[in-house]
């Protein structure tokens, strides 16, 4: 959670056709771009250099750059998103990664992994199996991470949760923010957890960036528990992202 750079992509107008589990109305490209600009500014205020890639109308979900790649200090890994309309996003982000990393590799094999299913903890990387991340992809990714010297573990994302990180986040300093379903699952062992208050589950997806935790607007109880745990928060609007199941982490690659 100590980062110097981020990569983001401006939301396209085609985000109105973005994937979602439950339809609550289409997001507006224009309104989303305003929220996105506030997000980019917050990353800059947290100390990051932010690459803002141009909107890609051919890929409605392409502003969610977290899903087609994964970044570590050693290099970047191009993933294979687990839904047909998003597979091509990995090729689209390659050049931006090559501009920042000496090493850019593709996940081996033909399995699928969405970056939203990958939770980086201080001492371990958790890979959640989900409707997007399959066993073949998760095993291949875990093996690659092991080659790079990381402990990686594959876990089963609970039913009804799109991505592993939809329901949990690292707050840093050994603390995890998670919904009670995720805490009850036992994934986190005896690590310290902060529980997202019931009825604010969407707010489980936050990001720790250097000295602050970015939290979504409209979830005051979650903000309170994060602050009470000793973290400084910055509140950002994510109303448009939410209509297509997106949250704060999905909107950037941080490294
Ligand atoms: C999708 O369903 O793929 C997008 N509409 C939302 C992706 C959110 N990404 C994430 O949680 N990492």
From TrEMBL:
SUPFAM superfamilies: Pentein. InterPro entries: DDAH-like. Pfam families: ADI. The keyword RNA-binding does not apply. Keywords: Hydrolase. Gene3D superfamilies: L-arginine/glycine Amidinotransferase, Chain A (3.75.10.10). Belongs to the DDAH family. This is Dimethylarginine dimethylaminohydrolase.
């Amino acid at each position: 959670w100590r980062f110097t750079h981020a990569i983001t992509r401006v939301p396209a107008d085609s985000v109105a056709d973005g994937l979602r589990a439950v339809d609550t109305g289409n997001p507006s490209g224009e309104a989303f771009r305003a929220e996105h600009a506030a997000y980019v500014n917050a990353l800059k205020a947290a100390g990051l250099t932010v690459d803002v890639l141009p909107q890609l109308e051919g890929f409605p979900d392409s502003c969610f750059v977290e899903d087609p790649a994964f970044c570590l200090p050693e290099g970047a890994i191009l993933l294979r998103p687990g839904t047909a309309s998003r597979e091509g996003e990995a090729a689209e982000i390659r050049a931006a990664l090559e501009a920042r990393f000496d090493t850019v590799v593709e996940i081996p094999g033909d399995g699928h992994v969405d970056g939203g299913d990958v939770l980086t903890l201080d001492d371990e990387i958790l890979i959640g199996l989900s409707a997007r991340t399959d066993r073949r992809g998760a095993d291949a990714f875990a093996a690659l991470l092991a080659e790079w010297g990381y402990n990686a573990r594959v876990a089963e994302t609970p039913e009804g949760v799109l991505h592993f990180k939809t329901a949990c986040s690292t707050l840093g300093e050994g603390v995890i923010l998670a919904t009670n379903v995720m805490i009850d699952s036992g994934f986190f062992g005896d690590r310290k957890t902060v529980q997202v208050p019931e009825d604010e589950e969407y707010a489980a997806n936050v990001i720790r960036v250097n000295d602050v935790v970015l939290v979504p607007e409209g979830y005051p109880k979650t903000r309170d528990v994060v602050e009470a745990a000793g973290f400084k928060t910055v509140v950002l609007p994510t109303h448009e992202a939410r209509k297509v199941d997106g949250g704060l982490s999905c909107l950037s690659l941080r490294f």
